[in-house]
Design goal:
Blueprint (H helix, E strand, L loop, with lengths): L3 H24 L20 H28 L5 H22 L7 H18 L7
Length: about 130
């Protein structure tokens, strides 16, 4: 959760950046602002390797996302739908939990566990449960 000091520091940083942009645009009103990538290279001069990495990343997303539906199609022939939905949520939540704990995140509190359980039940019963009635 964001505490007051962090919020104030972020606000000061954002305000100073906006002021810098406004003053630089005021001095050169006819120039186009220069947008940059995360490594502070202008977009026009981004390396070809970076472009290939973006294209490769998008292809991986397309393939993984597409094979998910194919896997669901075959899995529905062997398992009931609610079992599949529950196991998907359990696997995703377990992987996220392990990843965050490995990065040093604190253990969730009882209130956070309860809130997550409520959301999980609502997702399974209300959201995904409605799909079978259409």
């Amino acid at each position: 959760m964001l505490n007051r000091q962090s919020y104030n520091e972020a606000h000061r940083f954002t305000t100073s950046k906006v002021q810098q942009i406004m003053t630089s645009q005021a001095t050169s009103s006819h120039s186009t602002p220069q947008f940059t990538t995360s490594d502070a290279q202008p977009i026009e001069t981004a390396s070809p390797n970076r472009r290939l990495l973006v294209i490769f990343s998008l292809l991986v997303v397309y393939i993984v996302w597409g094979t998910t539906y194919l896997g669901i199609r075959f899995a529905l022939e062997s398992f009931p739908p609610y079992f599949l939905m529950g196991s998907r949520f359990l696997a995703a939540g377990g992987l996220l939990f392990v990843f965050l704990r490995a990065r040093g995140a604190p253990m969730p509190t009882r209130v956070q566990w309860r809130s997550a359980a409520i959301v999980a039940v609502l997702l399974l019963v209300v959201r995904d449960g409605q799909r079978g009635t259409r």
